[in-house]
Recover the amino acids of this structure.
RNA sequence: GGGGGCAUAGCUCAGCUGGUUAGAGCGCAUGCUUCACAUGCAUGAGGUCACAGGUUCGAGCCCUGUUGUCCCCACCA
């Protein structure tokens, strides 16, 4: 079958993917004779569709897993999707409002969950389709959803374990409350940003002395209804006499004490702090120290409750305004200062969160964090790039207890029941039917669900069957590398590490490869609100998946952000087009020829040169892939394929291919096929589709490239010396081209080359390609050029080249050019001389370097002599 | 307040453990209807490697400081 003239990915990408699936190449089998290599995919949220970040994430993983598979590992890439409790619930709530005009409460828990499962079916399916479009070679037989039965069992097991160890506890503590999502959030789920606001100075009068008062400065006047004290610093001379006295809280006229507490900073504000334990984390701590009552004044939707008296039911911000007005009217408002402070926002709906005291479930972090820190410290887990280890330590060392309960419906239900008769709390692996204490069957399960990250934390082993000791778990765990964005280091990676160590007693992965964010052309984050997101599917539709993959990994380094630009996709498309056409050229020329093994061919210097380049490329690509330097690996291949193979080697073979010597033709074709086949294998992990399509057209290939063996470096084929010598021929070709251009000689005009050289034999062996690529008629080896008339000349490593160009030669210009060259060489000599006359350099620098420098010096001296001779010839 | 990234060609970025004349893509200039490819080929112009010190035989790379810029964490009554 002949290859199409132009590269058109639409013709084959889908077909090839279907074929791979059908052949079962993605499926990983347990094979005792192979070493396992495992990646579990960070499960995309089922909230919508994949964006460019996902596309990069999956390209990196696919590249790694394909490489390992070709390298002979039992390579498992396990795909999945995440139920994303809060994120999905927010979406479904919006959706039912829009489509059915109802709230989730109106629908009821059961109906709402039905809708959400339907949502899941739709979106999880769509996400998988997108992953397939990208060419992802993941094992679809093992596709997992975080609320699958096996994951639910893992969640239950983990929760019960932690509960009985006392590492999960329920408590009334201050948490972040999202009034829009109406749920508690963990610290990690809150994003802070600076907001311009004000400092309201409020005067609270002393109960016994109407002339005495304290002025508190607050950014939250509406919370004053929850004030249960005013704190001053014990050392503050201004207020020492007030400590222990009572103040009258304005509007509500409640009495509150003045307490002495270090929390009050004498330098800040007025030095007096109103203490609202129910609505501020620091105040909560102060409250604990002084045994203050906790008065909650807000409802779960962010409106004021009865504690706010007549403002009950009013929104918190409306109330703020009203309270300030009333205080002003009452004469308690001293002044308003502009003030900027940071305000926490819900990471899902971006509304301002409310610190609030609430009864929630928490994971005790300190005992879990310690071994997790050690695992990275002792290098059992390697974080790439290394600098992110610091971020990890910093977070782990200061982490507070993890609030895991969410007041949502979509998620893993908290496995705790309370006996309605005796109040006993039950937390077991199996759902209890009667109370073990009193035998009652009136058991109520906790209404809340778990933080979505609680189940994600178990992902590396829950997907493999934990808590059962399955063969998969035994063989594929611990996984080898986790590939994900640095933005979820805290949410996910850190929690997988301590969860793996706690529950599985093993690290979850050996390496963590972090990548950065995909930004837009201007370097901005891609986001819905900016509308600057680019849909990977649109790009695939226009350019094909391989081009998109190219654009997403070209130039990326671990942990670094990257920009998506259509120009990069085009560069990818052009590169692939180049591969396509080079392959077409090779395949066209194969027809009617004998493709022989390298051993049976007399290799030309050019052949040895390209084979040598190929070997170097194999070495570098392998090395960089093993270091997860995917971008570097690809760029090595790009250069090899384009510059060495296409621009040089293919051109070099043409003199043989269009000649008459059959043996030479067979030789050239054989080397072309050999190099191309290897190059395609090297390229396959990056550009799976196009390489498969071409591989199929190559002679002597069988089966799929994706299960072919990845090329291994072969030192016997490195031909270092020969390759270096051949560079001299390249230099001559380039010199002739440059000289022609300089004097305005048309590149197509054939010239005669006169060489003064000691390398006649070697040059002669390469004469045919030299003539063809330099655009020359003949090569003549001479001792003296005085008879040639006007010439231009160029000094090369292998020879001095003289080209008689008659009237085209401007003697003055030529002389000036040579003088310029001489000048450059003289300065090189001075540089080398400087180094060589430096005793310290001679003594301390490595011998090889000194030798090289000396050789260089000699070479330049020789060049200088030759150019001086040429200049003399002008006279 | 703590931590980190970045600063190299007009633009976007590479530059490994310090070692020839610092690279690529895009852009630019000039010339090519050469039989795989104009999604191409050839030739070329373009850099005080942010600034100031230091270490070293040798610094784009290591150290200290400065400036600019971006990010993360904590605090912010």
């Amino acid at each position: 079958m002949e290859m199409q003239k132009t590269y058109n990915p639409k013709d084959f990408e889908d077909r090839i993917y279907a074929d791979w699936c059908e052949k079962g190449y993605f499926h990983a089998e347990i094979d005792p004779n192979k070493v396992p290599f495992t990646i579990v995919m960070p499960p995309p949220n089922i909230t919508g569709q994949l964006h460019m970040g996902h596309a990069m994430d999956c390209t990196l993983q696919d590249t790694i897993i394909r490489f390992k598979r070709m390298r002979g590992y039992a390579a498992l890439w396990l795909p999945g999707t995440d139920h994303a409790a809060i994120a999905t619930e927010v979406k479904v709530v919006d959706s039912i409002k829009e489509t059915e005009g109802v709230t989730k409460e109106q629908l009821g828990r059961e109906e709402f969950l039905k809708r959400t499962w339907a949502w899941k079916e739709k979106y999880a399916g769509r996400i998988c389709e997108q992953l397939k479009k990208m060419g992802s070679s993941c094992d679809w037989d093992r596709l997992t959803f975080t609320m699958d039965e096996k994951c639910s069992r893992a969640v239950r097991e983990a929760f019960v374990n932690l509960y009985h160890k006392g590492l999960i506890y329920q408590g009334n503590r201050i948490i972040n409350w999202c009034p829009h999502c109406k749920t508690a959030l963990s610290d990690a789920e809150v994003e802070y940003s600076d907001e311009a606001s004000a400092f309201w100075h409020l005067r609270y009068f002393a109960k016994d002395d109407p002339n005495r008062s304290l002025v508190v400065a607050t950014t939250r006047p509406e919370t004053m209804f929850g004030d249960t004290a005013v704190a001053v610093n014990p050392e503050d001379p201004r207020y020492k006499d007030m400590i222990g006295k009572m103040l009258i809280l304005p509007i509500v006229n409640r009495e509150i004490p003045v307490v002495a507490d270090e929390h009050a900073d004498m330098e800040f504000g007025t030095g007096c702090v109103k203490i609202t334990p129910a609505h501020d984390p620091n105040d909560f701590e102060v409250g604990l120290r002084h045994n203050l009552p906790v008065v909650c004044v807000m409802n779960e939707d962010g409106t004021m409750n009865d504690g706010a008296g007549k403002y009950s039911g009013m929104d918190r911000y409306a109330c703020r305004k009203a309270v300030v007005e009333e205080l002003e009217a009452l004469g308690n408002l001293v002044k308003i200062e502009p003030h900027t402070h940071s305000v926490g926002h819900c990471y899902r709906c971006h509304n301002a969160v409310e610190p609030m005291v609430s009864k929630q479930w928490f994971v005790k972090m300190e005992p879990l964090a310690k071994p997790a820190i050690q695992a990275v410290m002792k290098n059992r887990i390697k974080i790439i790039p290394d600098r992110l280890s610091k971020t990890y330590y910093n977070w782990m060392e200061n982490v507070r207890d993890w609030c895991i309960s969410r007041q949502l419906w979509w998620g893993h239900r908290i496995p705790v029941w309370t006996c309605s008769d005796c109040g006993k709390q039950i937390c077991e692996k199996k759902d209890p039917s009667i109370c073990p204490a009193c035998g009652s069957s009136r058991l109520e399960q906790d209404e809340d669900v778990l933080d979505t990250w609680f189940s994600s934390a178990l992902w590396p082993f829950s997907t493999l069957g934990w808590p059962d000791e399955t063969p998969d778990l035994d063989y594929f765990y611990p996984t080898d590398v986790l590939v994900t964005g640095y933005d979820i280091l805290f949410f996910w990676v850190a929690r997988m590490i301590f969860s793996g160590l706690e529950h599985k007693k093993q690290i979850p992965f050996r390496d963590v490869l972090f990548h950065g964010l995909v930004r837009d052309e201007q370097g901005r984050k891609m986001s819905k609100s900016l509308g600057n997101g680019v849909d990977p599917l649109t790009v695939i539709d226009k350019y094909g998946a391989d081009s998109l993959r190219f654009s997403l990994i070209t130039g990326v380094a671990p942990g670094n952000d990257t920009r998506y630009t259509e120009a990069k996709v085009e560069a990818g498309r052009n590169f692939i087009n180049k591969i396509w056409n080079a392959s077409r050229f090779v395949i066209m020329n194969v027809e009617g020829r004998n493709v022989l093994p390298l051993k049976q061919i007399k290799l030309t210097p050019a052949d040895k040169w390209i084979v040598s380049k190929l070997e170097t490329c194999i070495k570098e690509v392998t090395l960089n892939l093993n270091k997860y330097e995917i971008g570097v690996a690809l760029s090595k291949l790009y250069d090899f394929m384009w510059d060495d193979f296409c621009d040089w080697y293919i051109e070099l073979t043409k003199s043989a291919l269009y000649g008459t010597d059959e043996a030479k033709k067979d030789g050239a074709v054989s080397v072309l096929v050999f190099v191309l086949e290897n190059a395609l294998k090297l390229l396959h992990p990056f550009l799976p589709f196009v390489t498969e399509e071409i591989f199929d057209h190559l002679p002597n290939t069988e089966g799929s490239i994706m299960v072919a063996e990845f090329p291994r470096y072969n030192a016997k084929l490195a031909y270092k010396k020969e390759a270096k010598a051949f560079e001299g021929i390249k230099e001559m070709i380039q010199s002739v081209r440059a000289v022609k251009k300089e004097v305005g000689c048309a590149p197509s005009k054939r010239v005669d080359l006169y060489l003064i050289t000691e390398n006649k034999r070697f040059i002669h062996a390469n004469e045919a390609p030299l003539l063809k690529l330099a655009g020359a008629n003949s090569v003549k080896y001479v001792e003296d050029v005085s008879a040639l008339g006007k010439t231009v000349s160029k000094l090369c490593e292998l020879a001095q080249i003289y080209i008689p160009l008659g009237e085209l030669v401007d003697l003055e210009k030529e002389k000036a050019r040579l003088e310029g060259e001489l000048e450059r060489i003289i300065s090189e000599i001075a540089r080398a001389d400087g180094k060589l006359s430096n005793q310290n350099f001679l003594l301390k620098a490595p011998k090889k370097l000194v030798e090289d420098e000396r050789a260089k010096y000699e070479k330049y001296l020789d060049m200088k002599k030759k150019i001086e001779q040429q200049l003399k010839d002008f006279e």
Notes: The first helix of chain A runs from residue 13 to 23. The CA atoms of residues 65 and 75 of chain A lie 6 Å apart. The two ends of chain A are 65 Å apart (CA to CA). The mean pLDDT of chain A is 92.
